[in-house]
Specification:
With about 325 residues, the chain is an alpha+beta fold. The protein folds into two domains: about 80 residues; about 230 residues, Bira Bifunctional Protein, Domain 2 (BirA Bifunctional Protein, domain 2). It is built from 13 helices and ten strands. The strands form two sheets. The chain has a seven-stranded mixed β-sheet, sandwiched between helices. Helix 1 runs parallel beside helix 4 and helix 2 packs antiparallel against helix 4. The radius of gyration is 38 Å and the shape is elongated. It binds 3,4-dihydroxyphenylalanine. 3,4-dihydroxyphenylalanine binds next to strand 9 and strand 10.
Length: about 325
């Protein structure tokens, strides 16, 4: 038995590894509950008295050697980690810079353009009520124009819905402010348009609202022309009569894109014209709904889908790309 302890002592002293699993196996083999050391301590009582002293000394020496070895290997382990990773006090590798989502890039561009002519940004909730999304905008219950916006309602309360357009922010802002008012309301809107796999039930709009004394249709046209010139570098626009319940008269704005390339033919369907937004003069009924004197004040409003503008600006072919979060697409906007 004493010889066996000597052999083990040599084995312990010679043991060397940086493998964590092997170190743990070594610890269990010697120091574990059913390990070699406990086994020897158990056997101690059966050792003849005259050998007890030497036996005791040897197993204590073995125990010390085992603990020393474990300390040594553990320290070596942590120092090898620090040497593997180099100087831990050095600054880290620079994180790669991300890029803004094209929708936000274009939203910010549009905001900058209108800011330069005095517009400020206003905000409103995405979960709206019927009053702000429809009724106060001159779209009372059963108005057929509600059908143009396939709406998500909350089953337990038909008064609550996901806003279908950013025009609801007009109402919220006018409730709390008297003219002059000049705001932009960008944000997400929701429509149940999953009928086509190309469309998505979430998209983005940006709304404009300007109310003051003597605001005319000419002001509206001029502001929009300024906008298309700044954003697209194109100043030729036309306004086609249209219908929105909250504006009278209402118009759809087309910008003349030109027919200089095959893409131009494709995206304009051979006409050279592209529709970019809806607009009009605020219907006096809307002003009355929010207690603004419709005799004294007039104003204009416009609303456009941001996705469409992004697709035109960057010639993107598929609207679904905006929501896939594919970094290969997003990375292309790093330098924009
Ligand atoms: N809210 C309209 C829509 O979502 C867009 C719109 C048209 C907004 C004309 C306006 C406007 O402010 O004057 O289809």
């Amino acid at each position: 038995m004493l010889e066996k302890i000597d052999e083990l002592l040599v084995e312990v002293v010679d043991f060397n590894t940086s493998d964590k699993e092997k170190i743990e196996q070594f610890r269990i083999r010697f120091n574990g509950k059913k390990g070699i050391l406990n086994d020897f301590f158990e056997k101690f009582k059966d050792v003849p008295n005259e050998q007890k002293k030497e036996f005791g000394q040897k197993i204590n020496a073995l125990k010390q050697a085992v603990n020393l070895k474990l300390d040594e290997l553990k320290n070596a382990d942590s120092s090898s980690i620090s040497s593997e990773k180099g100087d831990l006090t050095k600054p880290g590798f620079p994180l790669e810079l991300g890029s803004r989502h094209p929708i936000n890039l274009v939203k910010n561009k549009i905001i900058d353009i209108f800011k330069s002519i005095g517009f400020a940004v206003a905000d409103g909730p995405e979960i709206e009520d019927d009053l702000h999304n429809f009724t106060a905008l001159n779209l009372p219950e059963y108005h057929p124009a509600r059908d143009m916006q396939d709406t998500f309602y909350i089953e337990t309360n038909p008064d609550i819905l996901l806003r279908t357009h950013t025009s609801s922010v007009q109402i919220r802002y006018m409730e709390n402010h008297q003219p002059p008012i000049r705001i932009l309301a960008p944000g997400r809107v929701f429509r149940n348009e999953a009928i086509s796999s190309r469309s998505h039930c979430i998209f983005h709009q940006i709304e404009g609202l300007y109310i003051d004394e003597n605001v005319s249709f000419a002001d509206l046209k001029q502001s929009i022309q300024f906008f298309t010139t700044e954003l697209f570098g194109k100043s030729k626009i036309r306004m086609r009569p249209s219908y929105f319940p909250f504006t009278e008269p209402s118009a759809e704005v087309d910008v003349y894109w030109g027919l200089n390339s095959e893409t131009d033919y494709k995206i304009t369907k051979g006409t050279g014209w592209l529709e970019i937004m809806g607009c009009g003069m605020i219907d006096p009924a809307v002003l009355q709904n929010v207690n603004i004197d419709a005799e004294k004040y007039s104003g204009y409003a416009f609303g456009m889908g941001i996705e469409r503008i992004v697709m035109l600006l960057y010639q993107m072919g598929d609207i679904r790309m905006f929501f896939e979060n594919d970094v290969r697409m997003l990375e292309q906007f790093k330098t924009v």
